[in-house]
Amino acid sequence: MKETQLIEKLKENNEQAFKLLYKYFPKIRSYLLKFGASKQETEDVYHEALYVLINKLKDPDFVLTSSVNTFLFSICKYKYTRLNRNK
Prior knowledge:
- By secondary structure, the protein is mainly α.
- It has one domain (3-85): Rna Polymerase Sigma Factor, Chain: A.
- 72% of the residues lie in helices and 0% in strands.
- The chain has five helices and no strands.
- The protein has helices spanning 3-11, 15-20, 25-34, 39-58, 68-85.
- The longest helix is centred in the middle third of the chain and has 20 residues, at 39-58.
- The radius of gyration is 13 Å and the shape is globular.
- The model has no long low-confidence stretch (mean pLDDT 93).
């Protein structure tokens, strides 16, 4: 599925599209683990990032200017940084 199709399917709450988002998780998990995140933290951060992505895609004023992978990666880095600050 092409990325533009993936985005449209996500906007439609397509279950298959949601499942496809998990192909990005291993790379992001590996990155977060290098910075000291626990496995549970990587999962929590990724789920929070998915929530942000879905909500942003449903906002008619939002324009995704990067790839889905880049957007998720950025959100995960931000969320994990915030998590560490609050420890």
